[in-house]
Design goal:
298 residues; alpha/beta; Rossmann fold; nine-stranded mixed sheet; four-stranded mixed sheet; globular; disordered N terminus; Peptidase_S51; protease; peptidyl-dipeptidase activity; serine-type peptidase activity; hydrolase
Length: 298
Amino acid sequence: MNSQTAPLSKKSMIPKGLLVAIGGKEDKENDLQILSTVMSLVNKEKKKIEIITTASQHPKEVGSDYYRIFTKDPNHTVGLLHISTREQAADVSFLERISEADVIFFTGGDQLRITSILGGSPIEGEILRRYREEFCIIAGTSAGASAMSKTMINGGDSREALRKGTISVSSGIGLVDNAIIDTHFVERGRFSRLMQTVSMNPRNTGIGLGEDSGIVIEEGCILKAIGGGITVILDGQNLKYTNVANINSDESIAIENLVIHTIVDGYGYDLCRKRYLKPDDLRRMHLGESEENTNENN
């Protein structure tokens, strides 16, 4: 069979990279739990980190905070990519740096700046390629996390969010295609806006990241909570009813049987199987992977 027409195997479709989505306001002064976890995922002493500040209207100030943190270890090579135009999103020198980075980190700001400036660009294409084909870490905080999903919330007043048409949704980068990520979730009361978004497309799992909380996503499916905050999971797979398709704009939305979970550090969720994962579940999965790798090596 011609290799160009051969169907992809299930294993080849599993992304080789890891995603780290952070809810915002992660600790930058004390234990640096989340940011340290990001770095620990790369199993090498000398790491290359590229910080993309596209989301921010104050890129130098925002970038300098993360530069200071990541350069505390002298073994790290840290670069700042202040990409603010479509022309820069095609810059060959920037593209080469993305191709060589162990960690690609998106700062916070406005997620629409990320998608409008990077969407469809060579830089975005290389980030997607590397995530799918090579081991690397793609991390983002606040807007940088929201932009990871294929469907992205880009606005909406939380107080009016269970009224049809009050939430603005657009396309994100597409690193995650079976979930929608919202940030500053608990602190800004964003339950209702994520509920509305999931009710419009129950296939997508809603992920609400609290501040100083985050998730690591492995193989595009296995979500592990990190940090000191809370992550909320909205599971619409067994949604029984919603009136969202039958009401007018600004009318209230009814939803039946939307399931809510919360996970904290050490807990997880399987996005593909829609399954809650306790610490013992994650340990068993890890042991299974270790045994599989041992058998393959033998």
